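Key result, reporting period 2: structure in, sequence out.
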């Protein structure tokens, strides 16, 4: 009798706990230093902080778990900044000027190989996540239109032609903000192999 009535409570507590963990926002933005003033919470991404009436307002912020890409321009444009989880009581100490943030997106959750491809230089515009070898990028992403790359985890080889043919170059973890930093011509990656 006891266990019969107790068990549902355990189950309820479990779900309540899971909900609370899930409810913690990925990114909290604040109007003033030291997390004071008006605030907004962002899950995943926001392409224009104007939508939240919070454009060019952020002075401090908290990042929960995964790194974020922050942009001084709307729609993932303008000068970019990559910030790791932590509490930033004065955002300008990270290099992000005070009252400049206009859009941002979280690096996709990872715990294994991950490479991010961007349609434009400086990690602007569309972003595609790749977690394993892809013989023909044209089948799933903007073929021949990758202009910047973030290698989050794993070492990869990029090829200029599909099926791991053509010019090849290694991509160890790091930031490749433009094609010259990858020593290949713009818009020429057609396949990717996880080393
Ligand atoms: Ca402010
Ligand atoms: Ca701005």
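The corresponding designed sequence is given below.
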């Amino acid at each position: 009798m006891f266990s019969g009535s107790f068990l549902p409570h355990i189950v309820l507590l479990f779900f309540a706990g899971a909900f609370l963990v899930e409810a913690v926002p990925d990114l909290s933005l604040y109007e003033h230093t030291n997390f004071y003033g008006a605030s907004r919470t962002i899950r995943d991404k926001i392409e224009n902080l104007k939508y939240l009436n919070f454009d060019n307002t952020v002075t401090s912020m908290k990042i929960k778990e995964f790194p974020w890409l922050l942009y001084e321009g709307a729609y993932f444009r303008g000068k970019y900044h990559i910030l790791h989880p932590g509490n930033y009581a004065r955002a300008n100490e990270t290099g992000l000027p005070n009252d400049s943030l206009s859009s941002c997106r979280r690096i996709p959750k990872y715990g294994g190989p991950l490479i991010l491809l961007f349609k434009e230089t400086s990690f602007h515009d569309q972003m595609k996540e790749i977690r394993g070898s892809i013989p023909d990028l044209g089948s799933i992403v903007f073929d021949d239109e990758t202009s910047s790359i973030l290698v989050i985890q794993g070492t990869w080889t990029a090829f200029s032609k599909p099926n791991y043919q053509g010019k090849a170059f290694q991509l160890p973890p790091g930031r490749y903000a433009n094609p010259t930093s990858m020593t290949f011509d713009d818009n020429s990656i057609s396949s990717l192999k996880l080393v």
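The CA atoms of residues 150 and 157 lie 13 Å apart. The chain has one helix and 15 strands. This case is discussed further under Risks and Mitigation.
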